[in-house]
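Ticket #4471: structure output looks truncated?

Reporter: J.K.
Steps to reproduce: submitted the chain below (398 residues) through the standard prediction queue, then opened the result file.
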Amino acid sequence: MIDVAVLHVRYSVKASYYDDWLDAFGAHRRVRAEPVNLFRASERERLAGVLSRCGLAVILHSGTADTLDYVRKATPTLQGRKCPLVVFMGNEFNMPWLPFADRRGWLKEVGAEFVATQLLAETGAWLYEGSGAEVVPVPHGLNAAAFAMRTPRRDRRIDIGTRTFPYSIYVGNRLRNDLIARTGSLGRELGLDIDIRTDARLSRPEWAAFLDACRFTVATEAGSTHLERDDARAFAIQAFLRERRAGLAISPAGPIRSLARRVPWSWREWALRRLKSIGIVHEAIENDPELQEEALARFYGDGQPATPSGACISSRHFDAIGCGTVQILVEGRYNDILRPGEHYIPVSPDLGNLAAILEQVADPDFGDDIAERARAHVMENHTLDRRIDALLDRVAVH
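Returned output as attached by the reporter:
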């Protein structure tokens, strides 16, 4: 076994895949994990001692997804380590409050030997060039303990369901928002039991129970198809919205956001609703539909970008597969893990065949074969346990 320092940032948040990876390292047969929560000063103070007795250090997605504030506080200690460092990069789309130039710069500053990307190998190599870190593709996988099929599909009460937030305008992917909206309206016209909400997030147990109550769910690849190394578009969008937005906005990198991380999730949700009611929004979310459409048209247009795609498979795809919930997905690569017609029901990018698919949902047997194939495929090849095995082999730690 190898001693692994598993560095993460835990505060009040409902992002179950953070816990999935933390649990996976803790349960892995080749790993003796020592978690360190960099959010807490007392935990950062003991980091040097932890690193001195470990043969590998990993920083999970929670440390890099929204801010580098907490990993930066640990940078001097990390620079003095004797073991290799693997940094899992979270939220790999262009954000003006966490530009990729800053991420690459910090990887180089800390001397990370490896950066683990959720993206396709060629995209990751292009995006982190110059960081000094070797790029290792590590897509998400299934947490089979948390997401399991407990209710037979024909006994489930919801025909099609999901819980999600609208994509940030900085992602530039309007397709998922359009798919979810069209599925809701067309499904209700067909008399299907539709349970779709875009204003709530569930905890891991709640999300697993919800998926286990759904026969089908809908989604696209995660991430952005319009990815840039220099974040120029993201900065231009930010400037445009600040000029045109009628109300105020809370910066994800500001002191209010830092304070919000220290209060319970329910308090944050309540505060965001109250602020929204008086015209104050989170800067990552644009609530004015007309302004959003204008920004999308101005900064993304209708053409496909010439840069590598930032679209990828996400933890939510694996969550649904583990629960035996059939996915109706816009056709894509999904890191070359899922195949259309075999592991999911493919929707054309123009959504032209969506109505025909939904007409088949009422059939109680529709999709059973796909659910079985997808689950068998993932259980054999794409669990988090296997991901960690592959990572340990890649970084030559035994």
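Triage note (M.O.): checked the attachment and the full token line is present. The chain has two domains: 2-141+383-394, 153-226+307-381.
Status: closed, working as intended.
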